[in-house]
Fold this sequence. Notes:
With 449 residues, the chain is an all-alpha fold. It has 15 helices and no strands.
Amino acid sequence: MxxxxxxxxxSLGVRDVALLTIGATIGSGIFFVPxxxxxxxxxxxxxxxxxxxxxxVMALSGALTFAELGARRPDAGGMYVYIxxxxxxxxxxxxxxxxxxxxxxxxxxxxxxxxxxxAQRLFALGPVASKALAVGAIVLLTLLNLGSxxxxxFLQGLTGAAKGGVLLTLAVIIAISASHLSGAAQPGAAAAxxxxxxxxxxxxxxxxxxxxVLWAYEGWQTITYCSGExxxxxxxxxxxxxxxxxxxxxxYVTVNAACAYGLGASGLSVSKQPVADALAAVxxxxxxxxxxxxxxxxxxxxxxxxxxxxxxxxxxxxxxGLFFAAFAxxxxxxxxxxxxxxxxxxxxxxxxxxxxxxxxxxxxxVASWFFVALAGAAIFVFRRRxxxxxxxxxxxxxxxxxxxxxxxxxxxxVSSWFTGPPTARYGLIVMILGWAVFSIWTRSRSSHG
Length: 449
């Protein structure tokens, strides 16, 4: 039983959850990876668009699945709780272990490194300065996360609305301007649109393009970790969560299509910052400069949200006795698990110092989506054990929708293990090491009574 002194304060409503979902997910991905996606797809615009749409389908089917899971288990920790109650304490411990050492710390580190790299390009900084900025960003965001959950949610609401609104506005500007250039028969990047790959991409290319897309979508599932701070999780969770993910899919598919239209396949494939480059290509250099600065703002917002959400998993583990009890403590005034926030931040600093953006990206995506698939599979266990769920949200299209989500998520992980870069395997290696740690931990706890 959770002690009253360690309870979180419930203060998040539907709008908070929807905007937190958008703010937590939109970071560096949509600004950097569209070029990586089309390159991985062998230069095929058709496959590139398909990858973004498939990623959206996976995210939406997952949101519907997790909405029911969240209504059934409205506790802090989200996915951790689903895995624990469906499959036991051992896999739940492994999830928390990987959150700390790979997914949580890795996500914050990836975003911080991307922030440092962005500043390096903007101001012609050296690599040491770039790393220093990455670490400094983590420290700043940690301090911001030591306030109340309500204040964090309010900040995320502002940044989420700003990021979504700005991206959609820029996509419309790109599309209209490119259309005018094309209609006037002027030589613009939009003329390159028909360029496609000369050969059909292989299976490994398809997997690689989807892994890159999933990094852009990475983060929506972490909102489940905050269920313990939602006002009425059974009502707030499904509505806010699904609305947020639908908004994400619309934003991402629209922005990618606009970039492809503005730059064409050949231009998109060589672009390092497609949104900015597309604006420049259609005659909006001033807006392109704005986007290059806005990227840094977006990255910091996503990293801020990641620290907020991932720390709740460490808190939930500690409540269960699967992590040090000190990390279950919440601050007297703000009612947040400050020590858990500091634990995620410390791991993020270490990863940011020793890894580059591409290495961290593969690490986070593969490790994260293994447990996303496992948590999604919990719905089949709960439906069998608890067939009666009167008044609770139930995922439409069951069992097809959850099955699509679980199988596609698991397929990406398995394929990445065999065909992905070496860093794609690091997350699973960390998980395997976690089995040994769990065994030692449980033996130690049992020997002490």
